[in-house]
Amino acid sequence: SSLAIGTTTGYRLFSLSSVEQLDQVHESNEIPDVYIVERLFSSSLVVVVSHAKPQQMNVYHFKKGTEICNYSYSSNILSIRLNRQRLVVCLEESIYIHNIKDMKLLKTILDTPPNTTGLCALSINHANSFLAYPGSATSGEIALYDGNTLKTACTIPAHDGPLAALAFNSTGSKLAIIRVFSIPGGQKLYEFRRGMKRYVNISSLVFSMDSQFLCASSNTETVHIFKLEHLTDSRPEEPPTWSGYMGKMFQAATNYLPAQVSGMMNQDRAFATVRLNISGQRNICALSTIQKLPRLLVTTSDGHLYIYNLDPQDGGECVLIKKHSLLGSGKMEENEENDLRPPLPQSYAATVARQSTVPSTSTMPGYSEDGGALRGEVIPEHEFATGPVCLDDENEFPPVSI
């Protein structure tokens, strides 16, 4: 429901409560060349890293315009992840885990395999505060770490080659790397493919909040959405047909084929797709519910946000409904294609009504602010500040999964 972008002049925060309106919540030009900006859900806590000081993390209360703390590290910060319990700072060969309520350093994971892109994922569910990061620089091994107990949970041999993207679902019970694994056990649940015609570099993976869909974007012009359906053995017996018989024979044959071949046969194709007007440009995707309807959001590095309708029953090609500029005044750009497009076939995505009212948000449980941090310089392993990290009461409590 919110979007944060870093720019050459600072950073901007937006609210995504409506399709038609893109509301700018905050803009800061105090720090130039921001390449990392992470907001704690809908709260006033935002973490910023600038190219001017790439080894320093600044934590702000943006509504009050105050700095909560800042910490410096031994090398450049590559990524930051946070939930209600933990703040994780990823360097190329080490990871730092902070307690978000007082910013105290809880754990330093040293000598991690070289991770030049800062690839890591942290579950947004604070009860299952799992952290995943590459366990090898040459193979697709995943190291799974429990951010609550501060212990290694397991390692998952996910791929033969190096990892490109990681994503947890909202409850922290599934981890996606195109293959989907159960957490914390590491069993493979699903395997997908997005095409076999050309080499792609996955840039973004994300689950829907209900864990029913997984979205993947890459350096190509196509965004893929996969549906995670649970197959059971309690389905009614199919009528005896030639195709049904061959299907069973085909399934049985996979037990006797090499792993690479049988694995390819078990892969599922995309449930829904989007074809962008650009390719070769980095983009980030998200699956969200806006005005009570499922939407696919795609932001591109040229500073645009595209909003599509997603048909949760039939899938297919998603319909572009709005395009917003993130680098202008924050106002919506009209999508001329929508105005000129001929009538589409009757389907959920084509005929769903645009609601004019924004549904009221439910009151979230309290966010305990019983600790905090004052300004810091270089991280001391033994000495921390004690001031509180105070947010603004119940209006900005992060969502809680029940």
TrEMBL record:
Annotated Gene3D superfamilies: YVTN repeat-like/Quinoprotein amine dehydrogenase
Do you know which InterPro entries this protein is assigned to? PROPPIN, WD40/YVTN_repeat-like_dom_sf, WD40_repeat_dom_sf
BP GO terms, sorted: protein localization to phagophore assembly site; response to stress
Gene Ontology cellular-component terms for this entry are: phagophore assembly site membrane
Extent of the signal sequence = none
**Which keywords does UniProt give here?**
Autophagy, Lipid-binding, Membrane, Repeat, WD repeat
| GO molecular function terms attached to this record | phosphatidylinositol-3-phosphate binding
Q: How does it sit in the membrane?
A: Peripheral membrane protein
Predominant location category: membrane
A Pfam match? PROPPIN
Question: What does the UniProt entry say about where the protein is found?
Answer: Preautophagosomal structure membrane
Q: Family assignment?
A: Belongs to the WD repeat PROPPIN family.
| Name under which the protein is recorded | WD repeat domain phosphoinositide-interacting protein 1
Source organism: Gavia stellata
